[in-house]
Amino acid sequence: xxxASHVKMNLSETSNTAGxxxxxxxxxxxxTREQFEALKSATFVGxxxxxxxxxxxxxxxxxxxxxxxxxxxxxx
Length: 76
Hints:
By secondary structure, this protein is an all-alpha fold. The chain has helices at 11-45, 49-75.
């Protein structure tokens, strides 16, 4: 039995994976921009507990999305 991580993807799977890969990258970029803006604002006016929680949630989401990208790349 072949190891699933070594199985080549067919053309349809590759196309779908490329679309998923692109959407994840775009979401990471969007969240990263939000993180940058939050830090920039916090530099001047501080960060409320609610803003700090949102910042941490975005950081966790970015970490998860980066892991998804790694898994997609490894599956290729």
